[in-house]
């Protein structure tokens, strides 16, 4: 009985650890500006956030990301995720030849995707 309880506890702990925030350590770090919306996308070690023109946080994806994927190739890193609260899926592409970041958004409420090449801010 104690062994079964220990195994159940270990499995539960593993499930909780797996369900936590994705590992953002492999992503490019910095800030990129979406000039169409005067918004800055900040990618850090702890979270991905959207900032307004004054630097205030508009949206923080911390603990809201699911289906997180990273694909690193020789010339490009691609990462994607889903955010149910924002009702959108995101794909980001960062080439190795420049500092820009391309973002593609697939909103739930329309068939029209949004795409923008964002300039590196810092």
So how many helices? 1
N-to-C CA distance: 56 Å
Helix percentage range: 10-25%
Low-confidence stretches: 1-19
Structural class, please? mainly beta
Biggest β-sheet strands, sense, barrel: 9 strands, antiparallel
What's the count of strands? 9
Lateral strand order in the biggest sheet: 4-3-2-1-9-8-7-6-5
Mean pLDDT rating: 84
Radius of gyration: 17 Å
Shape: globular
Strand content: over 45%
The string of secondary-structure elements, in order, is HEEEEEEEEE
Give a written overview of the molecule.
- It is built from one helix and nine strands.
- By secondary structure, the protein is mainly β.
- The N terminus is likely disordered.
């Amino acid at each position: 009985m104690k062994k079964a309880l220990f195994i159940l506890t270990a499995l539960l702990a593993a499930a909780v650890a797996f369900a936590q925030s994705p590992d953002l350590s492999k992503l490019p770090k910095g800030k990129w500006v979406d000039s169409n919306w005067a918004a800055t996308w900040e990618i850090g070690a702890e979270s991905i956030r959207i900032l307004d023109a004054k630097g205030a946080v508009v949206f923080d994806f911390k603990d809201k990301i699911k289906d997180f994927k990273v694909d690193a190739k020789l010339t490009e890193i691609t990462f994607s995720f889903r955010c149910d609260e924002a009702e959108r899926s995101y794909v980001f592409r960062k080439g190795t030849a420049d500092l820009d970041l391309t973002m593609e958004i697939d909103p739930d409420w329309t068939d029209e995707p949004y795409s923008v090449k964002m300039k590196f801010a810092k």
